């Protein structure tokens, strides 16, 4: 397996699985007692304790399972999975804060700058995850940069699929 494909398997596959499962849980209303916004005024109603607990833990579990099944030899897969899940979530917060500042409803879009905010929605977490993966020493700058670009493409593709399956409301 090429070095870059290994990075995709380690980073993107668990995040896609964890995020997709989280969207199903949100749509079906599971664990609603944890659907408490972490800071509604600043980040909106969609950034919840449920997400901040669920996504890193499931990401860590999926990465650990992949490490066992494919013998990936990832150093500390549970900790890496938690770190990447947290990086994903934290890197979305500045964009959410900016959108609330512009009066954009959670899950909504800016009327005038729709493309700009849609772009931020797709690159914020990709950047945070690639940067974290690089800073933790799991990838060199070239592979982290490629991972960033590939992550954006995956994010767009998965979002379109989830909208098509009616699991996610909007792109």
Overview of the structural elements:
The protein contains 6 helices and no strands. With 171 residues, it is an all-alpha fold. It is globular and about 45 Å long. The protein has helices at 3-28, 40-43, 49-70, 77-101, 114-135, 141-164.
Keywords:
0% strand, 171 residues, mainly alpha
Number of strands: 0
**N-to-C order of helices and strands:** HHHHHH
- Main sheet, how many strands, which sense, barrel? none
Shape: globular
- Residue share in β-strands: under 5%
Secondary-structure blueprint:
Elements: H1 3-28, H2 40-43, H3 49-70, H4 77-101, H5 114-135, H6 141-164
Helix pairs in contact: 1-3, 1-6, 3-4, 4-5, 5-6
Summarize the structure.
By secondary structure, this protein is mainly α.
